[in-house]
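Predict structure. Chain length: 611.
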Amino acid sequence: MAAPKKGRRPTGAQGRPGRALAIILIAMVALTAGMFLSKQTTPRLGIDLAGGTSITLKAKSEPGKPNAINETNMNTAVGIIDRRVNGLGVSEAEVQTQGTDHIIVNIPKGVNEQQAREQVGTTAQLYFRPVLAVADGAPIAPEATPSGSPSPSASGSAPPKAEGSGKPSAPATPSSSATSQGRAISEALKAPAAPTPSPSASGSKKADDNKATPSASTSGAPSASPSASPDASAPPVDPAVADLQKKFAALDCTDPAQRTAAAQGAKPEDSMIACGQRDTQWFKWVLGPAQVDGQDVKDAKGVVDTQRGGGWIVQMQFTDKGADKFAKITGELATKQSPQNQFAIVLDGKVISDPSVSQALTGGNAEISGGFTQESAQDLGNMLSYGALPLSFQEDSVTTVTPALGGEQLRAGLIAGAIGLALVVIYLLVYYRGLAFIAIVSLLVSALLTYTIMSLLGKGIGFALNLPAVCGAIVAIGITADSFIVYFERIRDEIREGRTLRPAVERAWPRARRTILVSDFVSFLAAAVLFIVTVGKVQGFAFTLGLTTLLDVVVVFLFTKPIMTLLARTKFFSSGHPWSGLDPKRLGAKPPLRGSRRTGPVPAPVDAKEA
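Prediction complete.
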């Protein structure tokens, strides 16, 4: 007999089963420890199993856009809302249209309801507008002071100035009378002069947030000389400008209804008035036409400002076109005096920041700083990243979804899964006998890995287990059991050929391995395609099926094969005990042969000696 070639492992090599078992044991311990450390000891359930919140949004008609509520815009809104909700780390959320003007958003239990309502209901129309005038949020009373003379603000004192705050900045000086205020607004709207650069220009490459240089009037426009009455020689005021002046003077930003109505219907190309809050105090602005909008923002995210105290800020990256627009407008504003050297960041008609500018800001980046918590910064970045909704929506209803129906279906599904698993175990015990022990333990290992990974994914990426996902896990029982059966049958084939158990285990593995990999690849490919081409709950089925298919490969390679190698060394299995499932007599095994084959029957004793 020729000796095996040097350097090659002889057929039937045992490998290193202990190493593989140690790897999977370490993995199970690490996953279990991570599950307990994350305090997420159960998989997060979807809305059909755990209940949650159902939000109904109704599209609102806007002035000048009679046909805006259409199928295209509604589908676009569904896509944006779905991405926003997923940006919260929520999975298995359902976003769908109902009728022609309603959108239903179902969010699983465990999500911050208020945060979710703000995300799905906010239009997120972002504009960068130049500031023309700013004043206290209370109405301006013309009779409060003599015309043209300085007067205290409506609240009785000038609001405090906040360094570096992302909230709206306070007026630099006490408000003027209504007459001089209106004259300043009129001049700014008509043809704002470009005075010499303000003393605040520092050459910085960032917007100097809320560090406005004091000016002679609240609006910051060149003040007309004080007088008891308007200049008779001045040209007549444009009716639109006069109307804006009147609205600005009468606006009370402390009234929620007036705040909402102030910016309603304002077009990007028109001037507007808007409100904003700083701490607990409200202010109002006259703003010029929008120069940059949310479509010019390429990306936005809430981050920690490590350079200025560690507060939360929102960093924005503009598109190439948006960067050019932003550089142009900031270059123009840098030549003006406060507050006309400021631009207001307006979100859904509300001023959220009004930084001042000292020179043109190039580079395509900007930031909104100050006054943010981690949650508010990340929410704003999330909304800006996914864009504005094409329509405005109002909450029609918010209801709590109970898990009663889903709970009943879950119980029915679990009962079906338990029956299926019991049938598989009975089949294994009857047909494979002792080998059934290996299959059952392998199924338990697979179940433990699946459970811990699903629990960790719920905490990590927001994976939620819904009814289709449970079905995917039940289907995976058959896939995993099929892998065991393939390997066991290959071992039996080798024993039928006359080999003893230990060589049979090793020789059967390469053939079984190829079959298992091909079978699992087909299952995983089907799950991947299903996950890509479907939406909603069906993706939960595809995700679970793909996950359990991958785990089947891990369990078979790192547990089933090594444990089979170790058990083949035991007397119970190696001797072919009748209850081992590997009894050569029951399998009809041939006597072990060596050398050339003979045509006639060979007596068993002779073969035994040769063996």
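Summary: DSSP finds 17 helices and 13 strands in the chain.
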